[in-house]
Amino acid sequence: MNQHYDADVIVIGSGALGSNAATHLALKGKSVIILEAGERIPRWKIVENFRNSSKKGNYNSPYPNEPWAHHSYDEQYIENTGSFDFRPGMLKLVGGTTWHWAAACWRYLPNDMKLKTLYGVGRDWPMDYDALEPWYQKAEEALGVCGSDTDDQSGQGGAAFPPRSQPYPMEPEGETYLFQRLKSRLSPAGYHFIHEPNARATRPYDARPACSGNNNCMPVCPIGAMYSGDTHARHAEEAGAKLMADATAWKLEKGADDKIVAVHVRSSKGLDTRLTAKYFVVAAHGLETAKLLLISDVANSSDQVGRNLMDHTGMGMQFLADEPLWPGRGAVQQGGIFNNRDGDFRKNHSAIKHAISNNVPNMAVAQRLIAKGVIGKMLDEQIRHQAARWVDISTVFEILPHETNTVRASTTRKDALGIPMLTVHYEVDDYVKAAKAVVDNDYRRFASLMGGDVVEDNTGWQNRDHLMGTVIMGDSSRDSVVNHECRTWDHSNLFLATTGVIPASGVINPTLTGVALSLRAADIIEREI
């Protein structure tokens, strides 16, 4: 007797990773249900919310923050027990957090995936770069990535690297004046500037217009030139998938044969639904995926669910250059300095990436001047003068996976649906702290070479919103949650489409890698059903 299922595959989460996986499966003729805890918000409404917001510096402000679907800047959402205030800017709505990312789409280097073997620290990936390269290409095509085919992204100043099977889908945007001038003055001192590949259209692509330089990528691209996950949520629906918003998955149900047989879903009105499928894909972010598995008591025979939490914990500096650089024209970031992305130094301290922020700095400049008592005509003149010369360096560090950096279901806080919220314990380790001296020296040199008047020479440790490691990938069920396919060791029909599977953080934004892994997992599922 054939068993009836509500769908072939249920995908939990409608962000870039989940929606790309769902689109792949739906296009292959599979029945797919996508579950999203948040609601569906049109772009015009988010733009209007931003215009009316009094908190322009809060990138979550234009987005919903519901009692049953909190965004992560809500103070109740995450309880921190470590010394670091871990508070990434995650969203809950159709399309997920890529509504307000900077769209960076880097590939990991082959050496990033062999960290333990080459440098004796951290973990290796259970696969090599060549196995993932075809899926990187598919992910770049799906997201519409523009990039330079000539850059050595290792930061060593050599030939184009890492290897590619095809060119980028789109040519890179022109260099901003800010980037040109910094590159001109810092490169002679040995700093290697690398263009940042990004999911921003430089010509019409997949119904997206070319970027017009609004410089509003965070919190929202007003015209949709920058990729956001709602694109593939829409593509999935067009291909036949059913998307259920206001549908919080709160429990995975395990059957007698250790397969997952159902997911339990709750609406904001308290309506509970049990949905069945042949396969399940959890595509929530790195904190929520781990929480769902822990609450459900699944996929955790290794006791690694919710451990090994990594962010690209960073720091920054700001200074006023001795010439006008005019930041704030074009995308909010375009690339950076990669001298310390890879090398034997990784045996002793973390890799380092310096990104050049290109946000309009007027608000930060004005706040600083007002705090100093500058008013009236002088305030207006100084805003103009300093905003033209503002340089903002945003640095990230490579983080190692530690079992003691954890996310857990809260025992003291619940949302409006009665579902536990999050408790995070996070510490910055000595591997990162050992790299701080290198960064401090770079900061001094940057300011000196640009004739800079330093505003802030060390911001202290900062969040970077890149969630990895919490459902870590490995080659053994003893010390990892998923294998190289992103299939959980404990349940053959449960896959995790989240950057939480990444076992070695490197220094690059993990979203493209997450999409590549998700497409690869969807292909495996499609062939097995």
Q: Main sheet?
A: 7 strands, mixed
| Cα-based radius of gyration, to the nearest Å | 22 Å
Structural class, from helix and strand content?
A: alpha/beta
The sequence of SSEs as H and E is EHEHEHHHEHEEEEHEEEHHEEEHHEEH
Shape: globular
Distance between the termini: 17 Å
Number of strands: 16
Helix content percent band: 10-25%
Describe the structure.
The chain has 529 residues and is of the alpha/beta class. Helix content is 25%, strand content 17%. It has helices at residues 16-27, 43-52, 115-119, 129-143, 177-186, 230-238, 286-296, 362-371, 376-389, 430-433, 436-449, 511-528, and strands at 7-12, 32-35, 78-80, 193-195, 242-244, 248-254, 260-266, 272-282, 314-320, 333-337, 352-357, 390-397, 406-414, 420-425, 453-456, 494-496. The strands form 3 sheets. Strands 1, 2, 5, 6, 7, 8 and 16 form a 7-stranded mixed beta sheet that branches. It has a 6-stranded antiparallel beta sheet with strand order 4-10-11-12-9-15. A 3-stranded mixed beta sheet has the order 3-14-13, with helices on one face. Helix 1 links the parallel strand 1 and strand 2. It is globular.
Keywords for this entry:
alpha/beta, 7-stranded mixed beta sheet, 6-stranded antiparallel beta sheet, 16 strands, 25% helix, 17% strand
